[in-house]
Specification:
Elements: H1 4-25, H2 34-40, H3 46-74, H4 78-103
Helix pairs in contact: 1-3, 3-4
Length: about 110
């Protein structure tokens, strides 16, 4: 029996977990007021941030399962190696972006 149903389930899990995690995290960004940031940083926001973080981790794990299945489907070729390398880099960029978003409210104001 093919495991494609599990890869599809992982794709849906990645999409749903990422969306819901970002939705419940809801850190202030863009044009926010100082009072919005103060409200966000109250001690009561920590459980929500941790839940969103673990949802993101589960979503990334599901993404890696999907990408591993896709790599296996491509076969053992140069294309599969390039696909896997680009997939890992893409997932790493996603993780870094999520970390920046969760680390600082109003992350769009970070100056490098």
């Amino acid at each position: 029996m093919s495991k494609s149903w599990f890869a599809g389930l992982c794709a849906i899990a990645f999409a749903v977990l990422t969306f819901v995690g970002a939705l419940i995290d809801s850190g202030p960004g863009g044009s926010y007021k100082a009072s919005d940031v103060a409200d966000y940083l109250k001690s009561g926001h920590r459980p929500v941030v941790f839940v969103a973080f673990y949802m993101a981790l589960l979503g990334i794990a599901a993404l890696f399962v999907l990408l591993a299945w896709l790599r296996k489907t491509i076969g053992d070729t140069t294309q599969s190696s390039v696909f896997w390398a680009l997939s890992v880099v893409g997932a790493g960029v996603f993780i870094a972006g999520w970390a920046l978003h969760a680390d600082r409210p109003g992350g769009d104001r970070i100056r490098l």
